[in-house]
Structures are given as C-alpha cells and as structure tokens.
C-alpha cells in the first residue's frame, strides 16, 4: 500500500464496515479485510483496476461516485473512504454529503494545490505543474476540481462537518511540522488527509 493508505488504515477501527471510493487495485480494502477483519468493499471507475481487484477476490464494483452513492441507504457504513479522488469527481460537495450520509465517518485524502512547489512552478514558468502527486499533464489529467487544504477546511466549516483529525503527507512520510497549523499545512503539505464526521446540532 501507499503510505497515505497505511495512515488511513490505522484510523479504521477493527471489524468496521468500510466503503473505499476510488479504491484502485483494492490494496486498502484487501488489507482492512485481512488484518482488521473489516467488511470492506470498493467502488472504482477504472474497469481495468476493477478486473484486477475482482481477480484477487476483492469485492469491488465498477461505478462512478457522482452517480452511485445516492443509491446507498443512510448509515450503511462505519467509514467511507475517498482516497486521492476528491479532485477528480464532478460534484465533490455532493460526494462528501453522500459519504457522511451513508457513513458515520469519512476519510478523505487529496493532493494540495497550495503547496509551495506548485505555486513556485506556476509563478516561474506560467505552466501547470507536474509532480509525483500530480503526475500527468493538464490535458490528460482526471483532476477537474483541484483544491488546497485551506479550501477543504473552509468547505467543512461551511457544510457543517467536524474535522476530527487531520494530517499532512509528503511523499512517504507524515509531516509533523506542516501538521502544526492549517497555514503551514497549506504551504508545505503535498497531501491532506482528513477524518470527518457530521456536526451534531
């Protein structure tokens, strides 16, 4: 698994019901099933990844988060995971709303477009950057709603989501320095990782 997936797995309680949206090859749900006894399933848009997952005995469905989440009943899962996919869905606000309708908690990770290297690249070259987290040119990327860690905090506040825990991931390590404040995270974090719950009125 990627490092950010390991951090997500650490936040999932054993024997939980988990839906992983954008699950890729199913590495995370496979780990959660084997190591934590979770009832974990996946939803993936890439048919090749779905076929690979199913071939390994993993319960992964082919589908689009923008369309399919509305079909799940309220409270179906303990955790709904959206890993590195928020920026690629058509309606991120609706997807988050459904995640916290069908799940008690949501785990969301996304590339941070506010990172200083991306800002510097845009300033220096005037062109869209490519990094290990943003690995494809702008004309081939699936990313249609890039956001910053600041943006995500603001959206959570506006829509009434409680940020129970958050952290910053840089490559294959968790950045303790950038995790001290949202300002540092927005500037020095390559990825944000958030654990959310609905705020109870």
TrEMBL record:
Q: Per its UniProt record, what Pfam families does this chain match? A: MetW
Q: Which domain of life is it from?
A: Bacteria
> Which segment of the chain is annotated as a signal peptide?
none
InterPro entries linked:
Methionine_synth_MetW, SAM-dependent_MTases_sf
Gene3D superfamilies documented for this protein: Vaccinia Virus protein VP39
Q: Give the NCBIfam families listed for this entry.
A: metW
Q: Which organism is it from?
A: Bombella dulcis
This chain's protein is named Methionine biosynthesis protein MetW
- Xref: CDD domains: AdoMet_MTases
